[in-house]
Amino acid sequence: ANSVQVDNDIRIRRELITLKDLIGGGQFGNVYKAIYQNPETDEKMTVAVKVCKTDAEPADTQLILQESSLMRNFRHAHIISLIGVCVDSPMWLVIELAPFGELREYLQQEKDWLPNKTLILFCSQICDSLVYLHSTRFVHRDIAARNILVCSPQCVKLADFGLSRALDYDAVYTASRGKLPIKWLAPESVNYRQFSMASDVWMYGVCVWEIFSLGIKPWIGVSNADVIMHIEQGARLQCPDKCPPSFYNFLRNRIWAIEPHKRPTIDQIFGIVCDVKRQIDRN
Ligand code: ADP
Questions:
Q1: What is the three-class DSSP state of 280?
Q2: Measuring from atom 11 of ligand 1, which residue has the nearest CA?
Q3: Terminus-to-terminus CA distance in the chain, angstroms?
Q4: Is residue 106 within 8 Å of 114, Cβ to Cβ?
Q5: Of all protein residues, whose CA lies closest to atom 19 belonging to ligand 1?
Q6: Quick one: pLDDT at residue 173?
C-alpha cells in the first residue's frame, strides 16, 4: 500500500529476525536485542533491532530509508553498521549490536578503574570514524557521547547518525523533544543553523571533554541561553581532571575557536590525538 522507494539489497525479510530482550527506548521507538538468520549463509547473528514508532509520517519513513541506504555504504571499524531494514510498517532497522551499551553509562560505571590509555583510545577511535566520514564529505551533526556505543572494552563506535539527519533536525529536537543539543553545538550552529565539517569538529571537542569527564554532561547547571552567552564571551568547558593539559589547551584554543575556519580539520586533529595517545601509552 505504501510506495516507499528503497534499494532491494537493504531489505530484510521479517521472518529472518527473532526479537529477544528489550534494550532501551529512544525517540524513534524501542530497541531490542535480536537474532538474525542470514539467508545466504544460514548463520545466526545477534543484532540490535530498532522498531520504529508506527505513528511516523510517511515522509519521515522515506527519509529514514534514504539515510539508511546511505548509511549502509559506510563501512568503518568505528561506525555501527546497518545490516538492513524490514520496510513495511512497523519499520525495523537491523543494526550491529553493541553489547556494552551506551558510552556515557559505561564510563560512569567503570570510572574507578578506566585508565587514561582507554579514554584516549576511545577519543582516537571516534576521531578515526570522523576522518572517514569527512573524507566522504558527510557532516554528522550530532557527535556526542550519547551517540557512541561500546562494542568491547577496547572498542567504541559512532552510532545512529542516519536517523538524526533523516528527520528534520529542528523539528525532531525542538518540537517533539524540546532538545536541541545546544551544549554540544558550535556557535554558528546555534545562531545560524549552520552545520559543516567545522561544526562537527567543535562537537568532537565536546565529546572528548565528555570522555575525559567520565560521562558527565557538559555545562551542568547552566541554562542553554547562558551557555551560548558564556561561549561568546570566551568561556569554555573546564579541563577535566583526567585530560592531559596540553590536549585540553588544543581543545580550548583551536577546536573551540569561535570562527569555524580557524578550527583544525579532523585530519589534523587525528594527528594530534595519535601523538597524545603515544605519550599516554609510554607512561
Ligand atoms: P535515541 O533515539 O534516544 O537516540 P536510540 O533509539 O538510538 O535512542 O537507542 C535507544 C536505546 O537503545 C539506548 O539506550 C541505546 O543504548 C540502545 N541501543 C541503540 N542502538 C544500539 C545498538 N546498536 N546496540 C546496543 N544498544 C543499542
A1: helix
A2: 24
A3: 62
A4: no
A5: 31
A6: 42
Q: What gap in Å lies between CA 198 and CA 256, rounded to an integer?
A: 10
Decide if pLDDT at 165 tops 60. Answer: no
Residue 155 has φ and ψ, to the nearest 5°, of -150, 120
- What are 35-62's pLDDT values in tens digits? 999 988 999 999 999 998 877 677 777 7
- Is residue 135 helix, strand or coil? helix
Average pLDDT over residues 234-254: 98
Q: Find cell 547547571 and name the residue.
A: 221
The proportion of the chain whose per-residue pLDDT surpasses 90, expressed as a percent, equals: 70
CB 51 within 8 A of CB 92: yes
Among 21, 42, 55, 142, the active-site one is: 142
Taking CB atoms and a 6 Å cutoff, what residues make up the pocket around ligand 1? Answer: 23-28, 31, 48, 50, 80, 95-98, 101-102, 149, 159-160
> Which helix (H) or strand (E) covers residue 214, if one does?
none
Q: Can you tell me the ipTM of this complex?
A: 0.96
Q: Distance between CA 269 and CA 250 in Å, rounded?
A: 9
Closest to 266 in 3D by CA, of 206, 198, 212: 198
21 tagged catalytic: no
Angstrom distance (rounded) from CA 196 to CA 79:
19
